[in-house]
Amino acid sequence: MPSGLQIRKEIALAPFTTFAIGGAARYFAVATTEEEVVEGVFWAREHGVRLFVLGGGSNLLVRDSGFAGLVLKIAVMGMEARGGNLFDVGAGEVWDRFVERMTSLGMAGVECLAGIPGSVGGTPVQNVGAYGQEVAETIESVRAFDREKFEWVELEKAACRFRYRESLFNTDEPGRYIVTRVRFRLRPQGEPNLRYADLQRRFAGKEGVTLMEVATAVREIRRQKGMLLVEGDPDCRSAGSFFKNPIVAGERLAEIAAAAGVEESKVPHWPAGEGKIKVPAAWLLEQAGFVKGYGVGPAGISTRHTLALTNRGGATFADVERLQDEIVRGVLARFGIALEREPVLVG
Ligand SMILES: Cc1cc2nc3c(=O)[nH]c(=O)nc-3n(C[C@H](O)[C@H](O)[C@H](O)COP(=O)(O)OP(=O)(O)OC[C@H]3O[C@@H](n4cnc5c(N)ncnc54)[C@H](O)[C@@H]3O)c2cc1C
Predict the structure, then answer these.
(1) Is the dihedral of CA 98, 100, 105, 109 positive or negative?
(2) Could you tell me if residue 2 is inside a domain?
(3) Has residue 28 been placed in a domain?
(4) Which of 29, 36, 149, 282 has the most Cβ atoms closer than 10 angstroms to its Cβ?
């Protein structure tokens, strides 16, 4: 079979991640077409090695020992209007460029997701969300290669089973599908989403707020929190939020309040369906003593965002793991809640 896919050996993974941590991939290749994606899958099978699919590397924590298989970076590009407010976007496109294009065209639905790092193909995986919006709200379907059946599939939104930071791709069938294209349905000339309190404050009393203004405001809020990738800013050398907001039974509110030594009304929380509540992980961390800037080593909590563990320079996987374990233990001891890591572990 003629090969367009170039397999390289012993490629350091840290530069391909926003955390800038981790060892090398034994084999590494960049797939720019769907044919090359399939080639990568077959190559890994023929050589009896595991395959890891890499997007923009913004939600990964790579072990110091690296990955003893093939890392396949998805670089299938393209952004096409299909009519009927539909847009087909290659998985390798940079997510924020897509947001920029949509907001400049007056297409509503992704303006609050501005500034999220990573690729378009990475967004359905954990159903990215921020500032009152989730990508699932605008996804129409996902084209992917099914590694189990060795065939291409078109998964309608319902089949993607989107939930909070979960989907078919990372929870129900992790690693089974390689996304090469996402189809979005936007709202032409739609009103921007101003559900988030920071945005409401910023635009209070202003008429006719545009999508671009909202996207710009979101990037600015993110920049202030170190949640936008800015060259030279150590607070964004992270994988974004390190812990998921835990979902617990509503009856536990009183217990959480007692553990924090505050009244129930002072515990921030949102309804999470079926008598459950979602409690902000950042609040739990702070109550348990893990505040902004915490940590003395090369890995520490961001100075501007409690939920981001950062590589202050030269941090290893082991440094991050130590800090993670310390935080998980501390929050468990105080609240009886076991925090879950959000970034994907590689290796
Ligand atoms: C500073 C910062 C801020 C962030 N803010 C947010 C936020 O506000 N909200 C939020 O939800 N997330 C946030 N994140 C996390 C991250 O940006 C998103 O999860 C992003 O969508 C990951 O995409 P990626 O292309 O970088 O994926 P990667 O990190 O490369 O991969 C993540 C997972 O997706 C899989 N994957 C990637 N591409 C594909 C594909 N084409 N097909 C199949 N599987 C694939 C990988 O195998 C892996 O399991 C933030 C991260 C950083 C560093």
Answers:
(1) positive
(2) no
(3) yes
(4) 29
**Same domain flag for 69 and 84:** no
Structure confidence at residue 98 as a pLDDT band (50, 70, 90): very high
Residues 89 and 51 in one domain: no
CB 58 within 8 A of CB 117: yes
Say yes or no: CB of residue 117 within 6 Å of ligand 1. Answer: yes
60-62 and 344-346 strand pairing? parallel
- C-beta of 260 in contact with ligand 1 (< 6 A): no
- Catalytic hit among 165, 181, 183, 252: 165
Choose among 116, 28, 109: nearest CA to 74.
Answer: 28
Known catalytic membership, residue 165: yes
Domain of 165 in residue numbering reads as 79-224
- Could you report the per-residue pLDDT of 228-284, keeping only the tens digit for each? 999 989 899 999 999 999 999 999 999 999 999 999 999 999 998 889 999 999 999
Which SS3 state, helix, strand or coil, does residue 16 take?
helix
Using the atom order of ligand 1, give the atom closest to the CA of residue 125: 34
65 and 99 part of one domain: no
Number of domains in the chain: 3
The residue out of 224, 245, 263 marking a domain boundary is 224
74, 96, 126 — which closes off a domain?
Answer: 74
Q: Is 252 tagged catalytic?
A: no
Separation of alpha carbons 235 and 230, rounded Å: 9
User: What is the per-residue pLDDT across 202-213, written as a single tens digit (0 to 9) for each?
Assistant: 999 999 999 999
Question: Which atom belonging to ligand 1 lies closest to the Cα atom of 127?
Answer: 11
- One domain, residues 94 and 218: yes
In a domain, 155, yes or no: yes
Which atom of ligand 1 sits closest to the CA of residue 226? 1
Question: Which letter, b or e, does each residue of 309-323 get, where b requires 16 or more Cβ atoms within 10 Å of its Cβ?
Answer: bbbbeebbbebbbeb
